[in-house]
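PROTOCOL LOG
Step 1. Enter all chains and additional molecules of the complex.
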Amino acid sequence: MHTQSEVGYNTKIEGDVVLTTVDAALSWFRANSVWPMPMGLACCAIELMAVGASRFDISRFGSEVMRFSPRQADCMIVAGTVTYKAAGFLKRIYDQMPEPKWVIAMGACASTGGMYRSYAVLQGVDNVVPVDVYVSGCPPRPEALLDALMKLQKKISREPVVEKMKLMNLNKSEVAV
Amino acid sequence: MVTLSEQIAKLKDKFGALISDPVEYRGEVTVTLTDCQEVVAVCGFAKRQLGFDYLIDISSIDNYGSDPRWTLVYHLRSMATGQEWRLITHVSEEKSELPSVLPVWRTANWHEREVYDMMGIRFTGHPDLRRILMWEGYSYYPLRKDFPLAGKPTDLPGIAFTKPAPLEGGPFVTLPSPAGAINREPRVRTVED
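Step 2. Run joint prediction.
Step 3. Record the structure below.
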């Protein structure tokens, strides 16, 4: 019972080959190239900039490509206080992002409204968009945001990509019929 | 150099009983205008004859529970001499309207829009009296004392919605009341109140 011979793999002939599943490979690609959409609304955006700069260096996690166009972004980082007036724009930008997409609520304001218990402030961005990771802090330290990004990467790498695609195609064909 | 008190005296010579005696408190001079309809004439005189060419700010006060309800505060400054004083005038709640000082200082445009947005005081003659902070169609004036801090529910589909914020009874809520600032503060209330 040699598994190697079953797949016809011989390192001496075929060189370095890694065996994996399509799911694992695709989600590995996805998890290590999360392009953020920086939704900087208040002071948390300053910490977000620090995360992007050399000392904390978000590029160690493959997320240095901040995209100011939602069409090219994977993960919206909501950094700051979301007012009701801004909530509509935020939702629209989220809707313009292509699937698959994720959201990080950075800081107390984006997560819950924070100290702004007031007529003007949305009490948590999860009222308008689905949030994957919440980061506590006012504002959070850059390390906290990196931690959130690592948690998001773990979440992404657990996703059954192929199964999801099959389901989506199934839904499409149902719609077409 | 002409002193500020001489400047105010000139103002008083021109407008007589319309202008109160200046009140000085901690080096700041306040003058009350008794008829809010004359605000453009007084401000125009202050700018053109007295040289107060800079309108720092217009703010409004809600004297909730007393009459007249609104107080408008104009902060004036002369860029040449650095002198500052403030002109205040009262507006009743039934009227809630006074002339715009836009013909005197063009900067009044956004100041007056903000007062309109937050307090609901209208300015006659303003060319573009729209809301500036909240959105068009929002139906309240949030800085009025009788507006709850938590807000009120509204919904304007496609534009914005609001929901009351969960305040859980405090602790940072100042109650609407004509009492002084110290007695309105949340710290004077016990938990049972």
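Step 4. Note key features.
The domain at 34-158 of chain A is CATH 3.40.50.12280 (Rossmann fold).
Chain A has a mean pLDDT of 87.
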